[in-house]
Amino acid sequence: xxxxxxxxxxxxxxxxxxxxxxxxxxxxxxxxxxxxxxxxxxxxxxxxxxxxxxxxxxxxxxxxxxxxxxxxxxxxxxxxxxxxxxxxxxxxxxxxxxxxxxxxxxxxxxxxxxxxxxxxxxxxxxxxxxxxxxxxxxxxxxxxxxxxxxxxxxxxxxxxxxxxxxxxxxxxxxxxxxxxxxxxxxxxxxxxxxxxxxxxxxxxxxxxxxxxxxxxxxxxxxxxxxxxxxxxxxxxxxxxxxxxxxxxxxxxxxxxxxxxxxxxxxxxxxxxxxxxxxxxxxxxxxxxxxxxxxxxxxxxxxxxxxxx
Length: 308
Description:
Layout: H1 2-22, H2 28-55, H3 60-64, H4 68-79, H5 84-105, H6 121-127, H7 135-157, H8 175-211, H9 227-230, H10 234-254, H11 263-286, H12 290-296
Helix pairs in contact: 1-11, 2-7, 4-5, 5-8, 7-11, 8-10, 10-11
């Protein structure tokens, strides 16, 4: 909890102040594009909120998590006359988005009636908890956290692309740009492998359950082999890595290690810390062996174990 609070304070207070005093302010073109994208963000937030309240399916923003960033980065690339670095950034985000959309879609998240589909199981659990069971409280949570916060987070972690607009840095792709892009692609591949390992495990587990077969190694209920033997959330680890690396493009474009586009990747780290805490609480309640797995296996970083 202390680490989460410190990161939140760093993001909300220290980073904006350092960026304001030491970073390069937005130019006219950046401000115009930011305003246009902000209007899209407001529309997306409003639509997701209304659809969630009408259908009682509160995973509307989840359906756009891997899609709307593709629009944001290509919007910026268009505004920048498709300068090479902007196109490279848009391409790697597109690769990330297509892969993640495929993984989300095969779990039943997308239907012809786009407002239906699989809802994040954690929302159903949270709605039953004291306080959240109140209809008005849940509506506020849906508006301010599920839709507004997460929608804004998606918007923020794509903003490093905006730093390349009208910047004095050379538009030509640098060696560092290629290295960052290659590292992101590698992270996407690792995330794909992790998701596939989990998908294979859960598919076989439920096949055996439905057929009434002996569960064997699937009886423990959760995957702890492959990449999951190294860390408890290899997919989450790579998701954070991808957007931290994406911030690296802004360093190359501006020459500034700390700039105003840093907030998105830091907030994403906070989100995954809280999200993994909640998921693990539910998993440990269902599968007794998970406690021992959690005790001996790091959360995100291999071979590094924090806490007890």
